Amino acid sequence: MDSPVSIHRATLGDAAFFPDIERASGELFRQLEELAWIADDDVMAEAAHRPLIAAGTVWVARDEKAGVVGFLSAQRVGRVLHVWQMAVSPSHQRRGLGRALLRAAAVFARDADLEAITLTTFLEVPWNEPFYAGLGFTRIPEDALDDRLREVLAKEAQAGLPRERRCALSLNPGVLAD
User: Fold this and answer.
1) Burial (CB count within 10 angstroms: exposed 0-12, middle 13-18, buried 19+), residue 68
2) CATH number of the domain that 112 lies in?
3) Res. 85: pLDDT tops 60
4) What's this model's pTM, rounded to 2 decimal places?
């Protein structure tokens, strides 16, 4: 029987679990021949999560028995909360934890009177753009991208992610927070 999972703000100690969770969740990309290499690619370093945790913009899914099984790492940028990474351990996927993590971020953004939650992701990869669209995120047209999101997408392309397969999404926090 599955043990209960709850969503909490991350602690600095939680960051140690994030690289392994991200790496394990990336195994899904092996299903897509042209993107399978991502499963072996670098993940967000533990140290990169720490300032975001200190800022209060990182949440974890904590299984009563297994410990940290998922996380969402975000950053407040002006009037926007930008999601840098979200990952859930394969053993806990398809249980609504991604949605719960995003809801926690949306409640934070709504309560902080932020205008939007943004992120970048793969177009048409089932657990990427379609997943987020199902939660109410909308694709930002290329000609409507602000400088910040253009820069994020450009840096991703420099890191090897195929720019033509990437997009930026936005959500009004009230959609998930209510």
Assistant:
1) buried
2) 3.40.630.30
3) yes
4) 0.92
